[in-house]
Amino acid sequence: NAGVTQTPKFQVLKTGQSMTLQCAQDMNHEYMSWYRQDPGMGLRLIHYSVGAGITDQGEVPNGYNVSRSTTEDFPLRLLSAAPSQTSVYFCASSYSRVSNTEAFFGQGTRLTVV
Amino acid sequence: AQKVTQAQTEISVVEKEDVTLDCVYETRDTTYYLFWYKQPPSGELVFLIRRNSFDEQNEISGRYSWNFQKSTSSFNFTITASQVVDSAVYFCALSVVNQGGKLIFGQGTELSVKP
Q1: Model confidence over A13-34: pLDDT tens digits?
Q2: Which of A61, A74, A81, B51 maximizes the CB count within 10 A of its CB?
Q3: CB–CB of B44 and A48 under 8 A?
Q4: Digit-coded pLDDT (tens) for B62-100
Q5: Cβ of A107 and B99 within 8 Å?
Q6: Contact present, A43 and A57 (Cβ < 8 Å)
């Protein structure tokens, strides 16, 4: 049982480049989300999805796009990378938005934008 | 709006000392859930505990214990007889009813346990 799988683990981008961070879960969880972790700021919600075809913005959505075409996958797209997007990114999933069960996190992606 | 505050940025203790990590939250919702996660140096996030707003009983799990007090909006975490393996960043988080998975995190407390 893989849980939540994120790829890649590390990435260096040049300013202006685009890329997609992949996230997949095999637990049939309804709810998926993306967070970024910055020093001294904890984790902040970027985008989330309550089910296939439904996405919404979190606290810090600017510069990122998401889509949820299947229950399993929730990719995060950086449209035009900026140094301010240097961060550690975590994908998470949880059983449903109603049950408020714990979230399961991927291993994280350390992104550096130069 | 919801908010979680972990005022202790860093704590350093010597092995076998007891240590308490503070967590204060703000929400106007009457039904909410509180969580603690551990982030060891390897970087993954490990779930420790979930507590709903109607259950104020303290919980103990081995060397870990949690004190939930609605009167002070606090959900503190105590490690008894700390060990080097407890060294990590600990996050407190909050979610409100019907927004499960939408977690509001505190800033985190970095705990260093020295031998």
Answers
A1: 999 999 999 999 999 999 999 9
A2: A74
A3: no
A4: 999 999 999 999 999 999 999 999 999 999 999 988 776
A5: no
A6: no
